[in-house]
Amino acid sequence: NGNDKNSPSTTVTTVLVPDNYDKDKLVVAGVYEDSYSSECAPSQTIQWNGRVFKNLPISYQTLFFTTLLHEGWVVTVPDHEGPQKAFTSGYVEGHAILDAIRATLSFDQIGMQKHAKVVGY
What we know:
By secondary structure, this protein is of the alpha/beta class. The chain has helices at about 40-45, 55-70, 90-105; strands at about 15, 25-30, 75-80, 115-120. The longest helix is centred in the last third of the chain and has 17 residues, at about 90-105. The chain is globular.
């Protein structure tokens, strides 16, 4: 079920790739989420109904990574609470963020450098 440190799980990450991206720069954005509702997951709030960023916390945080996108950074935004919405579960959130980094670096269509600079918040 992925709700503890011993259970395998899956999750989603949304990868934002600007036209001018640098294959050596990746930001993982662990965006603010104060609910265990799947409607609040970053993957849902980012693309909801064709409108970008339907909620204020996500909208506010996009100011940070929009700037990075303009500078050529690839940004990955994981649903860090996992499929069971494990609100405030450090193990689940930590693994989801690390897995998002690994998945983004391994995604052939982007072609990220194996030893890309990775930063996050």
